[in-house]
Amino acid sequence: MAETAHTVRTTERPDAVEQTRKVTPPPAHRRRKRRRAAWADGHTRTVVSPLELKSRWGTRIYWAVLAGVLTVFTLVFLFPLYWMATSAMKSSDEIAQVPPTLWPENPDFSVFTDAWELFDIGTLLKNTLFYAIGAWLFALAVDVTAAYALSKLRPLFGNVILGAMLATLMIPPIVVMIPAYITATDVPIFGWHLLNSPWAIWFPVAANGFNIFLLKRFFDSIPDEILEAAEIDGVPPWRVLVSIILPISRPILGVVSIFTIVMVFKDFLWPLLVLPDSEKMTISVGLSQTAGAVPQNQVMAGLVIASIPMIIVFFFFQRSIMAGLTAGSLKG
Q1: What single DSSP character describes residue 6?
Q2: Residue among 96, 121, 74 nearest 301 (CA)
Q3: CB atoms closer than 10 angstroms to residue 316
Q4: Residues in Cβ contact with 188 at an 8 Å cutoff, skipping those fewer than 6 apart
Q5: Residue ranges of E strands in the chain
């Protein structure tokens, strides 16, 4: 039997004459279903088929849903910042008003200068910046060398060491808070007293298993042929790290740097424990210590000022953050 789209020829006997009969084509909805199935065989299947998505109403619904979801999530994330900024310009009575107002009736911008002087934000920002820069330098020195050793030097039991570092990420920070504080008050063997010392901030920040993992993953993507060529030329390992690895690794180094600086700026509980001296407090601790004795609008103004440095860092380095997180994900 020989079949075509519209005709079928059948032969009953060898000497019989071929007879041709018409075949009724399938309905239109069946043809569309077959085309969709044939198209879907070579593409990823989704909840909404690509053909329906490309239709006029499908495109409109898609963009409407996307715009709605983005708007909702944007409002959810930005509304606390908006509320903080507008509450700073309200009076104390207006803040306690029910129902609350979305915009201050008589905005008062002088509250920001009052909060700057009242909280001594200049000193707090200077202290925090000093701790952040020191933690950044110390963290890069420790994390980069550790990741380079685990990735390229491949020491004995390197995988075990890396697994132990990653296991520390599974432990809640509050669990190790008391042992870490006891260690800071009297460091074993050395007998150092680290309270009211920047080293109490720098040591815990440098020992970061997540940063080491990020750096190691990026170093793994660097071809070994480059290092082997340098080794043939007699270049020592430390020179390979400084002259070859670090220049290539600027995207991931930027990400680790930003994470470290933001960690120091936003941390509260640990600086509260190890920096009790009011002259050495970070900005998060300094604001909390005075918040109970000042009006609420000035507290909000102090929080707005404290948020500005990190917002500036994000806007300047957001591309570096995204590029660094995806860098090294593909090896080739």
Answers
A1: S
A2: 121
A3: 10
A4: none
A5: 2-3, 7-10, 19-22
Cα(113)–Cα(105) distance, integer angstroms: 20
Per-residue pLDDT of the chain (332 residues; tens, 9 = 90+): 444 444 444 444 544 444 444 455 556 666 666 665 555 554 555 556 666 667 777 778 888 888 999 999 999 989 999 999 999 998 888 888 888 888 888 888 889 998 998 888 999 999 999 999 999 999 999 999 999 999 888 888 888 988 998 888 888 888 889 999 999 998 888 888 899 999 999 998 988 889 999 899 999 888 888 888 888 888 888 888 888 888 888 888 888 888 899 899 989 999 999 998 888 999 999 988 887 778 888 889 999 999 888 888 888 777 766 665 565 554 44
The answer to whether 257 touches 136, Cβ cutoff 8 Å, is yes
* DSSP secondary structure letter of residue 3: E
Tell me if 154 sits within 8 A of 246, measured CB to CB. no
